[in-house]
Every structure is written in C-alpha cells, then in structure tokens.
Design brief:
By secondary structure, this protein is of the alpha+beta class. It has helices at 4-15, 25-37, 106-118, 120-125, 146-156, 204-225, 271-290, 316-325, 339-344, 370-387; strands at residues 43-46, 53-59, 67-72, 91-95, 98-102, 132-137, 163-166, 175-178, 180-189, 193-194, 238-246, 252-253, 256-265, 297-306, 309-310, 331-332, 350-352, 367-369. Bound molecules: zinc ion.
C-alpha cells in the first residue's frame, strides 16, 4: 500500500473542489501550511483576479539548478457525470487486482501531487545536494493557462530548473512527445432577409460551410502528405470541426453562424501557420460577402492553445527518468500537458511520467490503482537518493 502520509494528503487534496472554474487557494493554503510545518517556504504566483495561483518552491540548495516536479491543481468538472462514489471524498475499494482509490483528481493529477508532498520529509532528511523544485499550477485543464504566468516568473529567477518531470498519468511510462493544440471559434456575420429574396441576403451558414469544407480539405491533405511523426497512433496533424450553430428558421436567410475547430499538430508543423492560411481564405470570402453588404464579416478567435512536446531521446532527462523508473523505452500520449510550454518557452527539457492512466481521467468514478501510487513513491525515493549523492549534479 502507499504510505499513510500519501493517503492523508490525497484525502485532503481530493476534498477541495478545484474544478478549473473554482478558486484553488484553499488547496494551496493547505499545501503551504504542510510545507511550512517542514520549514519549507513556498511562493504563490496569482492570476489577475487573485482567486487562483501557482505554487513554486525549491527544496535543497537554491544556488544550483535541479529537477522540477510539476503538476496542475485543477480538475475537470463532475457536472453531468454519473458517479457511484462521492466525487470529492477519497474512497478506497479492494479489487481482485489490488486497491483502487476513487475521487475526482485521483489520477489527473492530485495522486502525483500527494506522493510528491509525502516525499518532502525524505527530501529534507537526506539532505539533497541537487535541489528539487515543486511547481503546481492552476487552469491546466482549460488550456494550460496558469502555468504561463509561472513560467514568466521562473524566467526572471537566476536559477531555473535543469530538467522537469510532468506527473500527468502515464502509468509511470516515460513520455517524450505529445501533439500541440490550437482551438478557435469562428463567427460568421451575414445579412438576413426573407428566403424568397435569398440573393439579396448573405447566408452566414453557407459561408461557414465553405470554411468548414476548407478545413476538411486541409485535414485530408495532412493525412496524405504529412508532415508525419511516427510514434503516434495518428502520425500527422489532425484538423477537426466540433460544433456548428446557425440559422433561425427555414424562411430566413441566416445572418449568423458560428463554429469551433481545432488543430492537433505534430512538432514539425506550426499551427499558427495553418491558422494564417485559414485566415487568408476567410478574408477572400469576407470580400465576397461585402460586395452584398459591407457589414458582413468573419471573426476568428483562438480559444485555447498549448505547445506540443518533442523531447529528443538523447536529452539527459530521458535516460535520467528511465533510470528512476526502470523503464527502458519511451512513448507518446494523445493528450496535452504543460511540458510543451516548459520546454519551448522556458527551455527546460522534460518528460511526462506519472501514476495512473488517462483511461480513468476525466471520467465518472475516476480512480487510481494503489500500485501506481506505490510505483511513483519508488521513483521519488530513487530520485531523492540520486540527488543526495555529493557532486553528482545533473
Ligand atoms: Zn492533467
């Protein structure tokens, strides 16, 4: 079984409803007090509203670069999900293949944070010759929003982490790559009129349809011509339209239509470049619409965006974490993490490696297998041992 301390901390972390829409300050206050009891000071980096924050601290010597353990404190909502166990109360159930710990965030990703915090006394007792940095963010689930501020703050510090482990659920496998994502909302403003007079109007649904077909053609082009990055189940950039809304009645030419689409890009592709081509096509259509009415327009707004992760296999962090987990291989995941921003914006090479599986994340009755937490505890023990060797460095 995982340690009593891991259980106690996870129980607390799960009890705070830190759905991204809520404040995470109570949870951070709990963590700060816990760290404080061990004599560790931590810093908060707030959002503009002051309702949410990132937490950052360094354990061990503060004049050299160490290993960052990173996780997000927010969770997805439970709204509309059919839970058979309490969503914000840790419940342990024994199954034939071992115990499962239930609750929102157990696997994504308060389980990892609990194991990290439970290892703090061990980090202090060694003591560490190379430091461990803790980085806990907010608003990851709605597009890696919070961590951007943390990264801005870390940029100003004289010492930034030498490498990072992003503890998202990978069943403790070493993940070196995931795709990036750019999502956007398109609002088409046409001109309404009676459908019998259709040529006098500008049909917003028709123009939206042409934009959507353009995106679909792009999707096919990516599928046939790449660029390709092997290691993914779908080894090319995907383009997808998810929701369309427009029109009021059949006898009215619709003046409004909106839709959302996304790119999930491989590292060799710039989603901003794809968006720029889409914008060029949209402005051609806009010019056409304006021949009928100068007030017609097409607005395109990015709603969420995160960078892909593409850590080279020869980066030191890869073999370093492989030694900690005993995993000789690397793999990819089909979800996003903050790792891409840490490597692209802050220049901190990192891998994703954490307990639990995304098969259980974001779902009703989310759980983590207790063996996964134990495996993560073992990884941290080895990390602490390694970083407590004098002159070992990184
Ligand atoms: Zn997550």
């Amino acid at each position: 079984m995982p340690s009593d301390l891991t259980y106690e901390i996870l129980q607390q972390l799960i009890s705070f409803d830190t759905t991204s829409a809520n404040s995470n300050l109570q949870l951070l206050d709990y963590i700060q007090q816990y760290l404080q009891r061990h004599g560790v000071d931590s810093h908060l980096v707030h959002d503009d509203s002051g309702r949410k924050a990132n937490l950052y601290t360094t354990i061990g010597p503060d004049h050299i670069a160490g290993v960052m353990l990173s996780g997000h404190t927010d969770t997805v909502p439970v709204t509309g999900q059919n839970w058979t166990v309490p969503s914000h109360q840790l419940t342990v159930k024994t199954h034939a293949d071992g115990a499962r710990w239930y609750g929102r965030g157990t696997t994504d990703m308060k389980g990892f944070i609990a194991v990290v915090l439970a290892a703090v006394p061990d980090m202090l007792a060694q003591p560490l010759h190379t430091p461990i940095h803790l980085a806990f963010s907010y608003d990851e689930e709605i597009g890696c929003i919070g961590v951007r501020r943390l990264i801005e703050t870390l940029r100003q510090l004289p010492i930034k982490p030498a490498m990072g482990i992003i503890g998202e659920p990978t069943s403790m496998k070493v993940v070196t790559a995931h795709k990036g994502k750019l999502a956007a909302k398109v609002t088409v403003t046409g001109k309404e009129c009676h459908s019998g007079m259709a040529p006098y109007g500008v049909n917003a649904v028709n123009y939206a349809a042409r934009l959507i077909v353009w995106l679909e053609q792009l999707a096919w082009q990516k599928r046939s011509s790449g660029p390709f990055e092997y290691g993914y189940e779908i080894p090319y950039t995907t383009v997808h339209t998810g929701v369309v809304q427009g029109g009021e009645a059949l006898n009215i030419v619709p003046n409004h239509c909106e839709f959302v689409f996304e790119f999930r890009n491989v590292a060799a592709e710039s989603p901003r470049d794809l968006l720029a081509s889409f914008r060029r096509y949209a402005s051609e259509l806009e010019a056409e619409m304006r021949q009928v009415d100068p007030n017609c327009r097409i607005d395109i707004a990015i709603t969420s965006e995160y960078a892909g992760l593409a850590t080279a296999n020869d980066e030191e962090v890869v073999s370093f974490v492989q030694q900690l987990t005993g995993e000789a291989t690397t793999t990819t995941v089909n979800f996003g993490t903050e790792g891409g921003l840490f490597s692209q914006v802050l220049g901190v090479p990192n891998v994703v490696c954490g307990p639990g599986s995304m098969d259980q994340g974001h779902k009703p009755d989310e759980y983590i297998e207790s063996q996964q937490l134990e495996a993560c505890e073992r990884m941290l023990k080895r990390l602490i041992k390694r970083l407590s060797q004098p002159n070992e460095g990184l």
